[in-house]
Structure formats: C-alpha cells, structure tokens
Design a protein that fits this description.
It contains ten helices and no strands. It has 256 residues and is mainly alpha-helical. The longest helix has 31 residues, at 66-96. It is globular and about 70 Å long.
Length: 256
C-alpha cells in the first residue's frame, strides 16, 4: 500500500531570515514601548528637560536662546537613553530569565537577534527624534547645518551606546546592570554637556569631552546651532567608542 505525499500548508520549517528578523524587531519595539520604565527614560525625561530648561532660566547656556543649546543635547540624551540605558536593562533581564538562551536555540541566529534589537532601537529613536524636534520647534528652535551630518552622528552614536549597553548586559548580573545603567545615565546627564556646557567644569572639560554623550552633544550642537560642517573630531571619538564597545560586546557577551 502506498500513500501519496501530502502537501502541507503552511509549510513546516523556518521562515525566511529577513522575515524572522523583522518579526523579532517588531516584537522588541512593542515590548519597549509598552514598558513604563523605558518610556520614562526614552520619552518623559528628555521631554521634561527640554521644556523645563528652555522655559526657565536655570542654567546659563551662553549666548543665544536656551532651546538652541538644549535641543541637540537632549537629542543626544534620547539616543543614550534608548541605545544604552534601556537596551542594557532589558537585555540584562532577558539574559537572567533565560529568554536569550531560548531565543539562541531558535532558527533565528544570534546575530539576527542582535540585528532585530538594533532595528528596534533605531525605530524608537526615530520616534524620539520626531517628538523632541516637534517640541523644540514649538519652543522656538531654529536648527541649521547639514542633515546628513546629523544623521551620521546619530547613527554612529547609536552604535557606540548600543555596544556599551550590550557589553554591560552581557557581562554583569541583571540587578547590577539595572543599577549601573541608571547611575551612568545620571552621571552622563549631569557631566556630559547635555544640559550644562562643558566649559562650566573647569579643568575637567577636556576629559569630559571624550565621553560619547559629550561628543554626540557637541557634534550635534556644532551642526544644528552653529551651522558647522561635519564635526570630524566628535565623529572620530564616537567611532572609536563604537568600535571598542561593539568589539568587546562581541567578545565577552554571555548568553546565559
């Protein structure tokens, strides 16, 4: 007795790799946007800082309107909050609860999972930039400069902060990642040139300028506030941070 070969629909087996990455990226984005703590970091805090410090003369930002100085810094803060702080905390707890271990055993390869996480970060950052730019325009912001330079700074800055976040999440325990990521966020917010100009820190100015958030803030400020060309020095600092952080994350990240 012979049995005809059946036709199964849907066909068993893994979906095409691009579809798997897109589905995982969509899931990661939905999870991020539903998380109250993540929304606080990525949306509420940058928005409040932009509105408060632009409307009330609390910090002397030098000549010109406060919003022209603050808007680029807050954009840099938004990138840091999503690519570093939010991603580090979320990935750290996924690693602790065994989510990464299980996903690593799925048909989606590990590099595909990291690609999906990166895509989720980029989607969130686009939403952040749109929202913060609209608020800044409402506050009277008048940006200048080359949009390509701004885009390149944001992309390289995202790579640097993403590498740092993954390195922290892949080497520390989840609770330590939570504490360290929030502490670093607060320290860089205060001392990274986001709200307070670096020249207010005296002799520490040159050392602080080497921090990734300082380089991103200053680079965006040079372009958007002063209409400068490509800020190669700041871009170079970000590129070094990105190369070192991503290389270290790839080398030392532990999935379990």
């Amino acid at each position: 007795m012979t049995t005809a070969t059946g036709t199964y629909s849907p066909r068993p087996g893994a979906a095409p790799l691009p579809r798997m990455i897109a589905a995982q990226a969509a899931l990661e984005t939905r999870m991020l946007l539903r998380n109250g703590e993540q929304l606080l970091l990525t949306v509420v805090i940058p928005t409040l800082l932009l509105v408060l410090f632009s409307s009330v003369d609390i910090v002397d930002t030098g000549s010109g309107r406060s919003v022209d100085f603050l808007a680029p810094g807050v954009l840099a803060l938004a990138v840091m909050s999503t690519a570093f702080t939010g991603q580090a905390i979320a990935t750290g707890f996924e690693r602790r609860y065994g989510v990464l271990k299980r996903l690593a055993a799925s048909p989606l390869p590990r590099w595909g999972l990291m690609t999906a996480k990166t895509a989720s970060v980029l989607v969130t950052e686009v939403l952040q930039v749109i929202l913060l730019t609209a608020i800044a325009f409402a506050l009277g912001w008048s940006p200048h400069g080359n949009p390509f330079a701004v885009l390149l700074l944001l992309v390289v800055g995202t790579a640097a902060f993403s590498g740092l976040g993954l390195l922290m999440a892949g080497t520390l325990k989840a609770e330590a990642t939570l504490a360290a990521a929030n502490l670093v966020f607060l320290l860089l917010l205060v001392g990274g040139g986001v709200i307070v100009p670096l020249d207010r820190f005296g002799g520490a100015e040159h050392a602080l300028a080497l921090l990734p958030v300082s380089a991103l803030s200053d680079g965006l400020r040079d372009v958007l506030q002063h209409g400068s060309g490509m800020p190669w020095a700041d871009l170079g600092i970000l590129a070094v941070w990105a190369a070192v952080a991503l290389g270290a994350a790839g080398r030392f990240f532990r999935w379990e």
